[in-house]
Amino acid sequence: MLREPQHDSHLKFNIMKLHFHLPTFLITALAFSLIFLAGFTYVQQDKGYILDHEKDIAIEDAGPHNGGGKTTAYPFFSKFKGGKVAFRKRVLHPGSSIGYHLQQEQEIYYILNGSGELQMNGKTIPVTTGDAILTLPGSSHGLKPGNDDLTVLIVYQN
Predict the structure, then answer these.
(1) Which residues are paired to 90 by β-bridges?
(2) pLDDT tens for the 158 residues of the chain, in order
(3) Taking burial as the number of CB atoms within 10 A of a residue's CB, which of 35, 58, 71, 132 is the most buried?
(4) Where in the sequence is the domain holding 77, given as residue range(s)?
């Protein structure tokens, strides 16, 4: 009569135990987590849109291009990599500005609210609610508010 060894199940357990390697396990777990997250990201983009709420993205910041002062920036879609267009909102508080700078690509400022002064190629131009400014490559410009907040939408190529 053939008899199976009594320690066979114990042996299988020990073999499994010997093959468990903590670094390999951790790397495998990390890889599966990244694959899962990549799939989640794909599903989100597969919906065909990205929604940003300005209350969730508001940043207190100095004026760009060495403008100084206090501004509130709303960098819409900044977490979306590969976008071809930047869409920003910025509130220039009194005493702040978007510093005078050379424009490399087309850029649009649209004044949502308030009034101020646009510096364009060495000229000072008053701007107010409803004004839209298209700055062409090779032009220099800057923007500062009057005595109250100036809110501007900014669109440019990434």
Answers:
(1) 73, 152
(2) 555 555 555 544 444 454 556 665 556 555 555 555 544 443 345 578 899 999 999 999 999 999 999 999 999 999 888 889 999 999 999 999 999 999 999 999 999 999 999 999 999 999 999 999 999 999 999 999 999 999 999 999 98
(3) 71
(4) 54-157
